[in-house]
Specification:
Two copies of one chain form a homodimer. By secondary structure, the first copy, chain A, is an alpha/beta fold. Chain A folds into three domains: about 70 residues, Arc Repressor Mutant, subunit A, CATH 1.10.10.10; about 130 residues, ATPase, nucleotide binding domain (Nucleotidyltransferase, domain 5, 2-Layer Sandwich); about 170 residues, Nucleotidyltransferase, domain 5, CATH 3.30.420. The first copy, chain A, is about 40% helix and about 20% strand. Chain A has a five-stranded mixed β-sheet with strand order 6-5-4-7-11. Chain A has a five-stranded mixed β-sheet with strand order 14-13-12-15-16. The interface between A and B is large, with 59 and 59 residues. Chains A, B: It comes from Oceanispirochaeta crateris. Chains A, B: InterPro entries: ATPase_NBD (IPR043129), ROK (IPR000600), WH-like_DNA-bd_sf (IPR036388), WH_DNA-bd_sf (IPR036390). Chains A, B: This is ROK family transcriptional regulator. Chains A, B: Belongs to the ROK (NagC/XylR) family.
Chain lengths: ~375, ~375
């Protein structure tokens, strides 16, 4: 099933069919600028490889209603993995984007060695369980930190103290498996893109609020990486220039204002003022943050700071969708309400009218799903596999 | 010279040759995934249309050194226009990107009618002067305000009080000419992209500081428009949340802190404190802003605020080039120095290491040049013109 140069359009046709979900030959010809004959030939080739199939009839636009083409779900499978909270999440996705299996593997210690060996074990077990399937050999992997996706190196992940961790090479050496590794906030954004209808939203900012505050950017329907894979450091944009010190060395970063530690500290201060016992964990605060409750003020402030950062994004990037997620968001449903109540995100009105701000509770598997979508995007590899 | 569907790759080949400036057939085949035979055929077609030519010999990589292909400068010409300071700037560009003519036309009154009639007059005179040349019928036009480039409407330009100004239709109706209209900060960014080597920088933020503060974004080598053409509203991102009121209705926007009016006001306050005569115009301040001079403090503050905004961009977008321009930048060379001295842009170090911050004094014609590049990008139109 080697891809021939003369079939350089083959992967483009497959890519469009996968992204659209279903499409007619005529529309394929229109989008690609190829002749209908050429499209017909390429479609035949993809059908003979059992990657696409005819399914249903589209709307007629004068003449006979066209037959629609869809990906064959069983045509190829993809494994996506992501590390969160001392465990690996893995999913298996079919060619149509449906998750057909998922699992979680705890990591005993967050050393590079333990992390890698547990991932290899997890992938092997998942592959063994589905040994009858045609699985793409390249695994998508989402990790924390700044990730050089070209070299397959985690350059720095301060939370887990990884520096220059050559994860792709280590996995290759120990198991022969190939991975594509990307920061987990970036693959989460990719999941948001595909889990919503890609026809509806092309510029998506996915914001994850936990201990850290990170974001992933889908711009013009593509995952935006930046010049050195560093795009999306929303947590370290400045909101209150003379605000509290941040771990990064600056002051008043969004993360220093609305990250879990900042919320906990603010809650503890408030408890002291009110002479009640101090909250021990973030949930103690989030669970008492509705109007009239003890920690409502804390969440009001969080909403205020978050709105400023969101306003800046709306002004600068004019997105059509902003997706909030992470422990702080899922633990505190009223946060989205408070943010949405601020009708004015400190941004220009036309940009504000163009955007929808929502929360997502897809949970920690979102990044694993995004990692699977990431490798599914490479239709050249789907076609060149044996 | 109608483009055939079977030649859908023709415009791609032309596009690559224009962007690269020179390239061999072998490299074209590698980039496009087409066979060398197919590339050879397409190249012949473009040569027969006098759009590209053989020019010079490339480096051998085993075997015979390859012949390089270049655009024929005279193959097609492009007119770009932009409105600034009560006048239209126009340039004529050849296919290789060289500006071969330029002119300026004052606008007596900034009404839609006067503005349109003066542009039509200017284009006609430029076309007449170059009537021997093959000029692309579509003119690129940069204007202030929020521009719906699809509909050809200036939705709102507060400075000149234009609202829902259907500039494309008006020009079409009165002269039969087609235009493509885009916000002038966006086309300025496109000029920055092409005037630097596009091979070197793919993620460029162009920041123009005058009465307003606007930006244009080149991301992944393409002009980023946003979901409703509103990307780049850097001037209205929040820098000091409780800062001075901005025209947009919010507080502490970058424009309210470093726009010309803000600088003038700050200078006047400083003059009052120092009991000297108040500055009347912005240049009175910029010209006395070196270290030890009266208004140095004003510019130090401007640099501080600008650095915060630049830091936010570096964190969020991880660009490789930031270009500062506009009257405030060209009138005050020490501003770039002060901004660059802030080694720490309040941004993550790897992102900071990836970016270069420079100033540009290309002047007001930059936007007109960008407008010409804008229409040159549409190689389909170049091929389909008679």
């Amino acid at each position: 099933m080697k891809i021939q140069k003369k079939h350089s359009n083959l992967h483009k046709i497959l890519d469009i069919i996968i992204r659209k979900g279903e499409i007619s030959r005529i529309d394929l010809a229109e989008i690609t600028g190829l002749t209908r004959a050429a499209v017909g030939h390429l479609v035949d080739e993809l059908m003979s490889q059992n990657l696409i199939m005819e399914a249903g009839i589209g709307e007629a636009r004068g003449g006979r209603p066209p037959t629609l083409l869809q990906p064959v779900p069983q045509g190829c499978y993809f494994i996506g993995a992501a590390v969160f909270d001392f465990s690996w999440s893995l999913v298996m996705m079919d060619l149509s984007g449906t998750i057909i299996d998922e699992c979680t593997y705890p990591i005993s210690r967050m050393t590079p060695e333990k992390t890698v060996s547990q991932l290899i074990k997890a992938i092997k077990e998942l592959k063994d369980k589905h040994r009858d399937k045609r699985i793409l050999p390249r695994i998508g992997v989402g990790t924390p930190g700044l990730v050089d996706s070209e070299k397959g190196i985690i350059v720095s992940a301060f939370d887990v103290r990884w520096m220059n961790f050559p994860i792709a090479d280590m996995i290759k050496k120990e198991s022969g498996m190939s991975i594509r590794v990307v920061n987990r906030s970036k693959v989460s954004a990719l999941a948001s893109y595909y889990l919503h209808n890609p026809e509806n939203y092309g510029n998506i900012i996915s914001i994850v609020i936990g201990t850290g505050v990170a974001s992933g950017l889908i711009l013009d329907h593509k995952l935006y990486m930046g010049s050195s894979f560093g795009a999306g450091e929303l947590g370290h944009t400045s909101v209150i220039p003379n605000g509290p010190a941040c771990l990064c060395g600056n002051r008043g970063c969004l993360q220093a204002l609305i990250g879990e530690n900042a919320i906990l500290e603010r809650g503890q201060n408030l408890a002291r003022i009110n002479s009640v016992s101090a909250p021990e964990k973030i949930d103690d605060i989030l669970n008492q943050s509705r109007e009239g409750e003890l920690y409502h003020q804390v969440i009001t402030e969080v909403a205020e700071y978050l709105s400023i950062a969101i306003g800046n994004i709306i002004n600068l990037l004019n997105p059509d969708l902003i997706v909030l997620s992470g422990p702080v968001v899922s633990g505190c449903p009223q946060l989205l309400e408070l943010v949405s109540q601020k009708k004015n995100y400190r941004s220009m009105l036309p940009n504000q009218d163009a955007v929808k701000v929502i929360s997502s509770d897809w949970g920690i598997q979102t990044a694993a799903v995004g990692s699977a979508y990431l490798v599914r995007e490479n239709t050249r590899e789907i076609l060149s596999q044996p």
